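Why does residue order matter? Because the sequence determines the fold. Keep that principle in mind as you read this record.
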Amino acid sequence: MDFVEKAKEIFEKSAEASKKAVTKAGDAIQEFSDKSVLKLDIKKLQSEKKETCAELGNYVFKFFGDCDSLNKSDETVTNLLEKITTIDKEITRKEKFLSELS
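Structure:
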């Protein structure tokens, strides 16, 4: 094998190793990105839940100033409770997906 052939072989092996390294790095970056997005989504949903709970609390507080009874059949209460339940389910789904990535 002459020098040119040997250099070509070394270059090809080096290029193949570089491709593998770049692919692995790209996969790691993608996984990190996916996890970061999920964590950010979960934080956003938790914040939305806190805001909705506060809205429900403010509504109930205001309602008791005007009346003596309030129940789950009140449309505003029902809507806010459904929203909180939906947010909880979405948080659970995303946390499960995040744990599967880990």
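The longest helix spans residues 3-66.
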